[in-house]
């Protein structure tokens, strides 16, 4: 294992320290916790997300004006504990209630739920939106039901705009669930990542082989085969995404998300092919974003997220709003 | 070679298309050229940069209000031709003159110079700032003198602010040269990148080996040895950078730049160590940025850039100004 680290069990601590020291005008650490919070608070419903580390810039990179109020960092690929999530809730609380945005993994669901109960004992009103945008497989390692992956970032962005617009906790919960229902993601992997505490790659692929449907923790997908040209990969992913909607969306937002080790060059080539396919299907692409937003350490691969905005043009406005974060 | 592409000789064309189609509100392509230009023009000195592709998001990702006016894309790791640079100059020209920001590689210097001459025949006033921030080696593959690497992005940012503030062409050239003189960079590589047209890795490192001083095209550095903890890597790079200044800077800006395949997790761990060392040396860090800004396709590694701002607090303001680009 060749990584720029000091010791595997110190990575999250040192990374967190590096994040808040690098961007002190945007984020701060809640002392003695694994919570990254906004520097400036305001009278809004607090948005808290988080999960295992290893998905950087998610989630700390999306804390700031117009997006999250706090992110809670677990160990690498491990849910944060309930007491840490509780600290995140307290940091985000401005007496307007707090909404938890949780990716659908068994550990996260359990721990965020427990933190919700603890916060309610402290008289903080808390609601939860569960993101399960990955359409690749129905159940998987760590998950009952579909996994939460890169589409989570679009949920952060749209809810962040709504929170800034002073919408209520119940309105935000409803909005979040509406957005999640229209958000679908599917990914491919070319090379696995190495979890530092494990020390070897999470799975093996042959020199010319890729895997469709791999999750952001290297969970198995649905097929391995020889790599194909980008156009054909795009065709497979776009087709699968469109099949996941009851009817073909007329207007969409698109996110091509790099998994950490795949260069932007390939991400843009792929997006170009996706846009060609959307044109073929007469789908109007209203918003596009390309980059490493929800990674899997240094995994090579990418995911494609589609959000149906046909009946919600205001979601496009929300996606386009300026924010002050490290990484949006 | 496992890459998400269609054909090696189509990558730049398709990537460029992907970039402008993904961000049509920020950038546009000058028709039938390899030039990415701002959507909105204004009465400013035009800033043009560019070079070989493979360094994404540089340089097209830094086109937009407050930074570059146009970026010219060559083939992968290959200088753009003079006629393409000329198109970039024309796109950036708003009758206030055009400044070329060129990384110090023999091909780039030649071709940007030739384009300057062609533009002057068209009565466009053109000046050049050459960036040679890499202190690792004095001469290298492709270069006479020091190489231009990640520090170039800081030059873009500070000159972008000055152009927006309506400074003159001569003032910008002088400013650019002052910034370059205070900008020092050094990098390390853990794994080489594969140039698509070549099909195999540009150099080889053993499983536990890294190379100090590697350039952004995989040019040789100054030493190979076993990987060390991040703290020790930081110590080596910080020491070399400080030695490159006549006296230890009192106040600096810092950029940790990922080479494409190294996750943010490691970049933040490393920055944390760098900040510790700066504290030890009683150096005040006024500005910090971490991320993949000037990559070498999917090379694993990073570089550290230091900019002495001791006598120029206004450079910090320039670095902090909001801009509208894809990737700053």
UniProtKB/TrEMBL annotation, chains A, B:
Residues 7-328 form the DhaK domain. GO terms for cellular component: cytosol. Keywords: Kinase, Transferase. GO terms for molecular function: glycerone kinase activity. SUPFAM superfamilies: DAK1/DegV-like. Pfam families: Dak1. One of its GO terms (biological process) is glycerol catabolic process. The keyword Transferase applies. PROSITE patterns: DHAK. This is Dihydroxyacetone kinase, DhaK subunit. It comes from Enterococcus sulfureus ATCC 49903.
